Fold this protein.
Amino acid sequence: MAGKTIIDKIWDKHIVESIDDSTGVFYIDRHFIHEVTSPQAFAGIKKRGIKVARPEKTVATADHNIPTQNQHLTIHDELSRLQVNTLSRNCEENGIELYGLNHPYNGIVHVIGPELGITQPGMTIVCGDSHTSTHGAFGTVAFGIGTSEVEMVLASQCLILSRPKKMRINIDGTLGKGVNSKDIVLYVISQISAGGATGYFVEFAGSAIRSLSMEARMTICNMSIEMGARGGLIAPDETTFNYIKGREMAPKGEEWEKKLTYWRSLPSDPDAVFDRELHFKAEDIEPMITYGTNPGMGVGITGKIPALDELNPSDHKSFLKSMEYMGYQPGEPLLGKKVDYIFVGSCTNGRIEDLRAFSAFIKGKKKADNITAWIVPGSKQVEAQAKKEGLIKILEDAGFEMRQPGCSACLAMNEDKIPTGKYAVSTSNRNFEGRQGPGARTMLASPITAAAIAITGEITDPRIFLEEPELVS
């Protein structure tokens, strides 16, 4: 009998009742909610005359629709204000912990879970947000759910689910200069397409993955959804345990030792079999940037947009539509293209390591005059840490301004929208048409690549700056 994958180990432990060979009632350890996808779910259980089954298993925050300036004032936008106030009322009525606007733990839902120690290996985690897969970096089965499923979890702490197919993506080797986790995941998506992992839960493995910090691993798992996967995860190891230990809501004392024993049992067995397995070399990856209107339309920074004859004829129509939207031509290079906006933030790259990397890169330099930059921390704790480390001063000296925490320009749901026709290099996760505002043109990249572009005002290979002595050490 073959060994088990980490996915199967967690899945089997959380089946409350089997319905058939592939479907069962699945227990949820932790439910995160926010102001956008929860109101209808709360209205649903209220209409049914029931309460939240296990309120202590639910954590709420306001993030998607909040402003990133003047958060001490009443929210100006009427819909945003209604949603945030409704979340507060629903949490109060149902005894749910809420980290609302101006709370010291407030932040993007997928940033605060890990930084508070709520997210732990072996858990099942859901949220009414597709990028819940971020928590998979800790060795959890974490995935986004729809509003009707949010209601189901509030009512029962369970979901009826079918077991997913399993994929393992291995990245081995040593990453090159200027290449980080965002480049890894954009490269993989460019190779397998935005639908290449549809129907699968993906384990990321290999020496290049094991070398990453926890925050870098979160970026990888965050964007697993952008290759069509149900979710992504990475087996827990000493890096994971060291990150969790001592955090506010992490296990303590004897409970820590007990949990640690379980967590060490989670990695996939050596003889575990996956439905599909892929291998990539870290050395093949250079700083990446997208050129189209889905995350799979990416290329190395020194590369060119594909020519029509390089593509499958069935893809020509959608490709040309994307090129028309972006204002680009098939076969042309991206280096030197002008950029208008830079956005550093989101649940993909709004953590303290991202702000450190961006700040280290721009230290002693100046923002290009043609660039409007929004630097947005992923949480109040990230904001406080950035201030403590002097990152805000570095940003200000270079001509940048840090905003207050929130999802910000990741999605056109709050006041931070990229104007029609403008080009934005974004460290977020999606570049769909209108994602950052009606008619906005988005290119996805890492914080380091975004920093290089912010300095030059045009698409630039960040490695040219990394030759400078002060950035080599």
